[in-house]
Amino acid sequence: MAKFTLDERIEITKAIADYIIDNSSSTRKAAEHFKISNATVSTLMNELLPKIDQEKYFNVQSILNGNKPKTIADEEIKQRVEKVAELIKEGFTVEEITNSMGVTINVINEDLQTRLPRISESLYNEVKAIQLQNSRNNLHLGSNMSVEGQQRDENGKFTK
User: Fold this and answer.
1) How many Cα atoms sit within 13 Å of 113 on the Cβ side?
2) 45 and 27 Cβ atoms separated by less than 8 Å
3) Which percentage of the chain shows pLDDT scores above 90?
4) How do the domains of the chain map onto residue ranges?
5) d(C-alpha 100, C-alpha 92), whole Å
6) What pLDDT shows up at residue 148?
7) Using CA atoms, how far apart are residues 98 and 106, in angstroms rounded to an integer?
8) Vertex 119: Cα angle to 133 and 26 (nearest 5)
9) Radius of gyration (Cα) for the chain, nearest Å?
10) How far apart are CA 135 and CA 157, in angstroms?
11) Confidence class of residue 53 from pLDDT cuts 50, 70 and 90?
12) What is the pLDDT of residues 37-48, one digit of tens each?
């Protein structure tokens, strides 16, 4: 940050704060917008902004705290993870769950792979076993498929 004078630092700090407030932006998005590092944005928002404008600082902090990733400590997230696990047990596919819950496949995968084991190891193991069986079933279904001019033997291997 040595390349900025104090006046420039104050001006960019105000501009970044306004951007975060106006767009409910994260520090990462603000950094991309202003073409500076995320660390610089964080430093300006946490160290300089409170000295410049307390009200803006509290508004920015409120937005940034709301942007933090949610964890299983958040009851809503915990309930979603448990719901995803129950839907898997009921036979729904991940794609069906993403469509019905309005979340991305990445969120569902994070729920199943990272959050679920922290909530319930036994439920995680149960879901993992179901997914493994589904994978085996899909492989078995695929073993009957032919490729142009080739067939598969009883082990699923291509014959010439």
Assistant:
1) 7
2) yes
3) 52
4) 6-66, 75-152
5) 10
6) 64
7) 9
8) 105
9) 25
10) 17
11) very high
12) 988 999 999 999
